[in-house]
Fold these 2 entries.
Entry 1:
Amino acid sequence: MKMIQVQDLWWKYEAGQQYALKGINTEIDKGEFVAIVGPNDHGKSTLCMCMNGLIPHAFRGEIKGNLEVAGIDTIHSDIPTISTKVGTVLQNPESQFVQMTVVDNIVFGPENLGISPEEIKRRVGSLTKLTRTEGLLERTPDELSGGQKQRVAIASALAMTPEILILDEPTSELDPVGKTEVFSLLGRLKREANLTVVLVSHLMEEIVKYADRVMLLYEGKIELDAPPAEFFSNGDYLADKGVELPQVTEAGYLFDRSKRLLNAYPLTLESAYNAFRNVLTEGR
Amino acid sequence: MSTGRLSKSTVKGFIGYIRTDTPFFSLSPVTKLAVTLILSAIVLLIDDPRPLLVCLIFTLVLILLAKAPIKAMKLYTIGVLWMSCMCIFFNVIFRQSGDVVFQYGLLRVTTEGTIRGASILLKLLSMAYLTIFFVTSLRDRDIVYGLYTLRVPYSMIFVAALTFRSWGLFQTDLDTIRDAMTSRGLDFNKGNAFARAKKFVSVLVPLISILVKRIDDITKSVETRAFGSGIQRTYYHNIGLEHIDYAIIVGCFAALILTGILRYYYGLLSFSPYGL
Amino acid sequence: MTTADEDILRVEGLDFAYPDGTVALRGIDLEIHRGEFLAIIGQNGSGKTTLAKHFNGLLKPSEGDVIIFGMNTKNASVAETTSRVGYVFQNPDHQLCHRTVEEEAAFGPKNLGLSDEEIKNRVNEQLKFFDLEARRNEDPFFLSKAERQRLAIASVLAMHPELIVVDEPTTGMDHRQSVAMLELLDELNKKGYGVVIITHNMQLVAEYAKRVIVMLEGRVCLDGSPREAFTKTEILEKTFLKPPQIARLSLMLSDFGFGVTLNTKEFVETLNEKSIGTRRKR
């Protein structure tokens, strides 16, 4: 069974002049880590909100097509039901902190679902370990850094034991330390948790480390969808669409477009070092 | 920052932290609220300065046990003394009956005035110190936990928690907006009262727009965590009352009833011993 | 009259502590010259914003002096200093308070007490430069984030400051918008405005800033060109800041004669140069 299945999905906000999503068709398997990239206001957040049910249940507009997450038809279900399968982490670390202490914020979701206190306690135990927030439980939000707050936000979303985790630009308001904390956590989630992850981000250097697949959302349509190596080999096309490449990939692309000297455009710093060192020592 | 024996409390910036190594810390917030309200009611029922003095000593003991910071006591004492000065002034000066103790021109101090004045001062001081006790033994979150215990509807509890949590953000936003206005040449200290009020209004517009956007974000965040699902909510924290809580609350009520009986059935605790 | 090389801003022995006692800045000494493009970088809490707020007199030093265009901020009112040093806050929503874009742009000049004629000229000038002419009568609340950011800068520039401080100009922007914003700031710099940006985006710093000040725990731990700053890896490690990926790559290839390259174009040129020999051999 596909974890997320989108069939010919169209969405227009009530106040919008045109459709924000135009016939989205895609499938995501269980355990896949998919990164969604593209210019701002081209549908990335809109697609995320369709996956967690905010669209169409919390927004007014027109929807067409089908969307299923973990077997639930999002269009004909309700947000609380979907929330047991889909966890959401948003951009702003402050607005996701809706209670007075870290532990209160983490247990907020399960409490809303009527989960027993014993079960909630068990979840808090394992989640704080995973997100490295054990020492922060009694802290108030003004005692936490941005990175810590976002880790709490991730723990709070995971407290609902979802099968899918959606993160919409989770690091764009964080400083470099915070960004590193969040991406390390995503790496741990990928290795240890059995989650399907959908990440919207502009940080290409990090995306290539974790994503199984990268999807370009441009003007409401999926224009490109491929594993990172293949995705980032389309240098001109991506530049045209306003999507930057990881710098090392761009270097490979500019240096050797036809790949006569390199086997592939390097994606990471390490592979770039190896590739270019070879060029400098052996000429290939 | 070691917060071993300190924990953040209400009235941040004024008192800041409460002590966790006092006998009151583990009591339910409802108990602390009950003690404050009931003892205030008892103090209000008593007029005779002598039993009032006993009450004041009792409240002082409470505060000492709660390990309230001296800073808080100083501020409240001065505030109360200032307020009571006015009451005492009017009582002392304008009561004409009773033996005259001291006279200077129109200023006439009588025994009746002195006794009534003392009564008011002791009542206000007691209630002020009870407030200190309340504020220094409760953190923001304890107030919210207390609301759970009292079975207040969850929507109200949520609003209370969110308000407490957002207060700091609100302050920061206000400061930033003022800085942004000042950075474009708006001097908040110039101009008459009307001009200054107008300037203050220009701060409200960005504040409200930020508030609206934040509410939108918060709504998305809580909806995706099943807020408003209609399912019966559970509570992670143990928020019930213990035996000791019940004992204290019942004890306070008993004291209140006893005071009422003594006052209205037996006529004690009033100004009658002084013939007033 | 100041000459081209003269300092427009001098900071001498600046120490600053907030009212609650937290020390935010320690012993800062620096000079900013006319027409510089400078980036202040560092983790949150390192003192970047606190330092920048001294530049327009919003904050006054606890110890030491900040001298802006010959005025000591301790003796000048904020209104005096803000007309010469503009400050654009990170979130434009903290600034925008009028019902139309036009009124917003006119706010600064109005506070300066300029004539209606002059205010009108300045508003037109800024709306044109920032491509907001079409939005003149719209409510700022409904503009896109990038447009609001441009409006915030426009309304500060309408006061014709000689130095402008922009706090995090590209947060939440995509690549194209970020580049457009920095191109705009670069154009202003070429026109003679001094530009100070506070940012976390090391790629943009490498591309546009001519000077970088790195803050750590309230102190300046590095002050030099981006190229110089990126070679000082031990210092940067302490601040948890990483040079742009391409700079790190070039440093790794230093054995082959690579210096620090600031962008991919430079890297590829260097790579071509250094590998010509080996490639010819094949």
Note: The longest helix of chain A spans residues 176-192.
Entry 2:
Amino acid sequence: MKVTLRFFARFGELLGKNRVVDAPENTSLADIVRDAASQNGEGYGSIFDEQGKFRDYVILMRNGKRVSAAAAERTALSEGDEVAVFPPVAGG
Amino acid sequence: MLSQNERERYSRQILLFGEEGQERLKNATIFIAGAGGLGSPVSIYLAVAGVGRIILVDKDAVERTNLNRQILHYDRDIGRKKTASAEEKLRAINPDITVEVLDTTIDETNVHELVGNADGIVDAMDNFPTRYLLNRVALKMGIPLFHGAIRGLYGQATTVLPGKTACLRCVFPHPPPKEVFPVVGVTPGFIGMVQATEVVKYLVGTGELLANRLLLWDGERAVVEEIALERDPSCEVCGGKNQHGDAP
């Protein structure tokens, strides 16, 4: 299945903004992000902690709907899904 | 009632909002938390738009490193309190409005007193702990929180309407790590304009607000994106409930 991954802001700078990935049916949202992020050490480290869990401030969306980090591990994606991953910014 | 001077000063926007809309701006009080990168453009544009009473809070003094983005403060203001510098500029920009500045740190103990009877709170802070505090006060008082934040060429904004939309804690349950953030002045300029536009629309009662919508600005690619938001039923602050305690 083909899934679109979109990394925003700092994540996009490190991992590329948009990409379409080909993954086996029913791959979880978390695994698809993990796999894509693993190509860049700094990018991976900005999204995942040392245990491979999403850092708590990372925001995940599937087709425009928020998915919690815990749910992302068991959310199986489908053909054509769009996943957005972004870091809130804090400056003012 | 608007004076003749005011009718003239605001004539081009009275074409948009009518005298009634202008009077709503005149009768409003807006609390702006922070006189820095976001607070500068927000307060300047709310002042020229004729928001009748602007309360601006900041605890810092102007530093040279602020000057690439904090357009309320000039080179000659280095070392001066930001509140004094801001008050002088805003009064010069529009002597018909009331500007109140408070040189203090916003915290648990003073936030209610500082916000007073404001009609809305502009989040022009640079840290999430104070943002969460402003969020709680806005929810408690039932007034909107106009959120904005920036980093580098990226920014985000949303308008929290208590009881109607996701609160700031629903959207951002965990703050990003603290850092000395990179920034070029145009980014808080852009996001500050989004916030100020929201304030004006809210006060006049026109247009569609950024309610349950997170606007994301990617200045690197010149793209504005939007993410739909919803209340988090397990939110520790608003519990996804409205003001009457009912689930949405």
Note: The helical segments of chain A are 9-15, 29-37, 41-47, 69-74.
